[in-house]
Amino acid sequence: MRTALSRVSRRRALQGSAAALVVLGLLAWWMWPARPVPSGQVTFSTGVPSGVYQRYGALLQQALARHLPKVSVRLTDSEGSQQNLARLASGEADFTVATADAVATYQRNLKPGADRLRGCARLYDDYVQLVVRKSSKVERPGDLRGLRVGVGQEGSGVRLIADRLLTAAGLDPAKDIVPVPAGIDTMPGKLERGELAAFFWSGGLPTAAVQDLSERLPIRLVELDEALVDTLHSAGESTRHYRSARVPADAYTRAQDGKPVKTVAVANLLVTTDRTDPALVEGFTRTVIRSRDRIGSQVHPAQLVDLRTAIFTEPLTLHEGAKRYYRSVKP
Fold first, then answer.
1. pTM value?
2. How far is residue 317's CA from residue 120's CA, in Å, rounded to a whole number?
């Protein structure tokens, strides 16, 4: 009898302790200060008009207005990845998108503020597209010798990879072609008017400007094969971010005759700096992941944003705010 009473007493004591812990936990939760709600104005540096960066940025701005209503997002056009990184480092921008190879090059060259760059998410891959008229005799990058070629604007990721591809093909980008610094907003028109024999573009698939051009003018994509990628990799550390890929057969129906095209791909990263408030970065990253389908319905590459791969922002360290978000959704 005494033993039974002892068991009951112990059980009641344990139950009382558990109840006390619950009460204390609720009290601590009630008294603990709430995590600050992000507010204020931030600048997002995008890309050239009609490019994927610019379109993605505009739709992300709308999503952020819903998810972070106290944050005002200002968009600024840019020449591309290289200029975007310089703006981040100088404090002219708070967030941007840049290719992994451009980030690695910025770091390798010890550009101002390189050590302050941080990753938020891996987004989608850019695919290099070397565009020519369908009747062109250009079958490989080496055939561009002596021709007028659109190579992207000076501060763009396109310019970076175009120069590297031309070098890998045995051409001097400054001497063996006539380089025309232009963006995707003007290069298709220049090709159409005969002012260019070819142009390089690196962007998500499909890129609207290339798609529209294919509907006005018979064009095709020049293959960039695995051997070219191997030569790229031998050039140095920052080129390891390139990989062999294929433009799917249905990316540009009229330009590909139903066939995939070998090419080069590189990842795009959402980038900020260590100066940016962790709560803001956490909210920004959450919005990027949650708005994938809505944005992807209008900008196809955004459909490829994936929570399982978003955390891999090499060569950048994840920002503390991004880490908080990924921890919160970890299964």
1. 0.85
2. 9
